[in-house]
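To: structure subgroup
Subject: Chain for Friday's discussion

All,

I'm putting the inputs and outputs inline so they're searchable in the archive.
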Amino acid sequence: MSLAVVCGGCEHCAADYEIHRRSFPYWSIEFVARGKGTLTLGGRPHMLMPGTLFAYGPGIAQHIASDPRERLVKYFVDVAGTRAESLLTRNAPKPGQVIQTSAPSEVAALFDGLIRNGLRATPFTARILAVQVELLALKIAETEIPPGSAATRAFATYERCREYIEAAHRTLRTVEELSAACHVEQAYLCRLFRRFGHSSPYQHLLRLKMNRAADLLLNSNKLVKEVAVETGFADAYHFSRAFKKVHGLAPSQFVAGGRRS
């Protein structure tokens, strides 16, 4: 098989947990959900903390140890096959790399899904796991932030601004309004979102608005122009362009498709 999940699970590490390997036969991703520890990967030392992800495989030495006072709880998945190495090298973390995720709960949920499906023995299990591990790698790549970033003031500012957008997206119209409301200089705000969110603050705001618009179009009797006003657009033309940019369809096509469904 081109990509196969060999093993996976969640380890609640003992106080004296320690792994020392010169190599490993499979390509592996590990994710720290709770606790602390130390890691030496390919000869480089790292601190382990919640949200840390790392990958290794054949020829990469690993030394992993748990902090006895704050014991590690970590997920892992081992993969094999002709596409296993390229799955990691195309996404994140790459073999021998240590990163952090800005969305630890989402990553943990994907690992939990792998475990649930791995416990089922059906003719579809292997293929389902292969798809899920690809989704996991993509989610990690999407939410990757530099190691140690989660504890910085910059990341805390990004999280505060992101949460404000999600709470106020129905009435929020521009990045200038967001900048003023969060007391963050606009250029710095854009740098934070590019660094931690891989998009601009306006793109994040627009996605939330268009998701709201899609819900209104399908589940209410409102006209397109009424939904445009409700999501903060002065005219239906600019609303329709924004909607198509996010969803790939004009609002009228989206509604027609929803009704056929």
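Points worth raising on Friday:
The chain has a mean pLDDT of 91.
Strands lie at 4-12, 18-21, 27-34, 37-41, 44-48, 52-56, 62-66, 73-80, 98-101, 144-145.

D.
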